[in-house]
């Protein structure tokens, strides 16, 4: 049985000047959540004190063993709970994923009559347990619902030990050391949202996988409780948080939120190894932030993308994720019209108990500056050269050596192994640009 409680990560921003535009380019690959094990995804729609939380996870196993226990800041009524389509979260993941783009050098021997700006990739949005026993333990079942394929309880309790004992007696596996964490939530007057799979209802509905659970509530607390999830974790866990707001990006207030290295050129062979590249890049940057950082992977106005790893979400999709201020009525806007007033933030954290001892606390900001994890391949011109292109060849040699050094810095990969994989444009390209005497005795 697995308890799902969710989470957030950090980085170093490196900007290297390139011949490419700041954005655009031809999208060729993306780093979505499938690259990571033990990954949970949470969508947080936030406006004022109103929150809609959508929780998805990568639970693997028999669904009868699945359970979720989540602290919530207020009482939850039946109409505040919904079961969502997993494709909504998958689309949001694809839209916000770090991406690889490519450019091609023009023929250096052919005069360029005018500068060509690539704009083709800019996309607009388209279209009941024993009552006597629970009383003796000081546990109150405030509500009991069946929503979709889930049986849901809203619990409150007098003491943490009574609540933990009640959960254990009712087949919820609670990790060792949970009592002080549970007690801290009770002192904040929080309830517990508890869900199991109703196998009969799931069979009727015909789903073979677990759909995301949605909860809407009002509270001045803008946070994600992750501490219970760290107690029973098998090593480090990945959490992806997608914030959907009116004002601008979200950030954590009790951990450092930093941008991933982005907008850098990498060698051509990374196109075939992008998954390994991104996993190692993220691991390296996590270590450099002392494993305590929350990483910004994407921040953008939902109306468009540049370049697009997937189309923006439609107004109808956003509404189903809980963006309640978006109008999807056919008479006014339509499900395929532009999404209005929605800014998306994607945060990624690798967490454990030692490095993330506190829940994640967020705040909205007014910052609407666009950012994306974007990595660039610049292909040299490999056609026949009909002029003296020595200057161009020298520029490419310098660029390819710089790309190798950048890749080694981002990922920790061995620089000599990187250079061995590069298809250098001319034979002298592998010679490093460094003083001759550095390699005398190597």
Sheet with the most strands? Answer: 9 strands, mixed
The DSSP helix count reads: 10
The averaged pLDDT comes out at 84
Quick one: overall form? elongated
In the predicted model, the low-confidence regions spanning at least 5 consecutive residues are 1-22, 113-121, 330-337
Instruction: Tell me the quaternary state.
Output: single chain
- Strand % is 25-35%
What's the gyration radius in Å? Answer: 25 Å
User: What's the domain count?
Assistant: 2
What is the gist of this entry?
It is built from 10 helices and 22 strands. Helix 3 packs across helix 4.
If you had to describe this structure to a student in words, what would you say it looks like?
The structure is a single chain. The protein has 442 residues and is an alpha+beta fold. It folds into two domains: 26-127 and 214-379, no CATH class; 389-442, no CATH class. It contains ten helices and 22 strands. It has helices spanning 86-96, 131-136, 160-169, 179-187, 199-205, 227-231, 274-288, 315-320, 390-411, 415-421, and strands spanning 26-30, 39-47, 50-57, 67-72, 81-83, 99-104, 123-124, 139-147, 150-157, 191-197, 213-218, 223-224, 237-245, 250-252, 256-259, 264-265, 293-301, 304-305, 343-351, 360-364, 371-372, 374-379. Strands 2, 3, 5, 11, 13, 15, 17, 19 and 21 form a nine-stranded mixed sheet that branches. Strands 1-6-22-16 form a four-stranded mixed sheet. β8 (139-147) and β9 form a beta hairpin. α3 (160-169) crosses α4. The protein is elongated, with a radius of gyration of 25 Å. Residues 1-22, 113-121 and 330-337 have low confidence and may be disordered.
């Amino acid at each position: 049985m697995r308890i799902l409680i969710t989470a957030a990560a950090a980085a170093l921003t490196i900007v290297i000047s390139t011949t490419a535009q700041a954005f655009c380019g031809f999208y060729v690959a993306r780093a979505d959540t499938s690259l990571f094990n033990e990954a949970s995804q949470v969508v947080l729609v936030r406006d004022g004190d109103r929150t809609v939380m959508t929780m998805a996870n990568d639970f693997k196993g028999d669904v009868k063993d699945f359970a979720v226990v989540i602290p919530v800041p207020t009482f939850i009524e039946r109409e505040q709970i919904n079961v969502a389509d997993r494709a909504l979260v998958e689309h949001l993941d694809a839209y916000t994923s770090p991406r690889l783009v490519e450019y091609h050098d023009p023929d250096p021997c052919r005069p360029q009559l005018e500068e060509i700006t690539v704009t083709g990739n800019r996309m607009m949005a388209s279209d009941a347990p024993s009552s006597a026993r629970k009383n003796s333990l000081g546990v109150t079942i405030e509500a009991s619902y069946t929503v979709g394929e889930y049986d849901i309880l809203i619990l409150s309790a007098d003491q943490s030990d009574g609540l933990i004992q009640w959960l254990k007696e009712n087949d919820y596996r609670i990790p060792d050391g949970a009592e002080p964490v549970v007690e801290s939530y009770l002192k904040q007057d929080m309830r517990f949202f508890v869900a199991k799979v109703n196998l009969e209802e799931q069979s009727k509905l015909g789903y073979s996988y677990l759909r995301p659970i949605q909860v809407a509530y009002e509270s001045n607390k803008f946070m994600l409780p992750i501490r219970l999830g760290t107690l029973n974790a098998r090593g480090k866990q990945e959490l992806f948080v997608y914030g959907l707001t009116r004002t601008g990006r979200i950030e954590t207030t009790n951990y450092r939120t930093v941008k991933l290295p982005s907008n850098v050129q990498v060698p051509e062979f990374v196109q075939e190894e992008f998954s390994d590249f991104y996993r190692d890049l993220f691991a390296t940057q996590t270590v450099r932030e002392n494993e305590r950082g929350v990483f910004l992977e994407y921040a953008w106005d939902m109306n468009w993308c540049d370049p697009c790893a997937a189309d923006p979400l439609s107004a109808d999709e956003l509404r189903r994720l809980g963006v309640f201020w978006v109008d999807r009525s056919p008479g006014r806007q339509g499900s395929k019209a532009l999404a209005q007033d929605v800014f998306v933030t994607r945060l990624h954290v690798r967490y454990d108990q030692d490095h993330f001892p506190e829940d994640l606390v967020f705040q909205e900001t007014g910052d609407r500056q666009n950012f994306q994890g974007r990595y660039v391949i610049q292909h040299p011109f490999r056609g026949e050269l009909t002029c003296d292109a020595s200057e161009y060849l020298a520029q490419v040699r310098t660029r390819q050596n710089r790309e190798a050094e950048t890749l080694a810095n981002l990922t920790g990969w061995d620089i000599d192994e990187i250079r061995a994989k590069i298809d250098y444009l001319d034979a002298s390209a592998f010679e490093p640009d460094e003083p001759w005497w550095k390699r005398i005795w190597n």
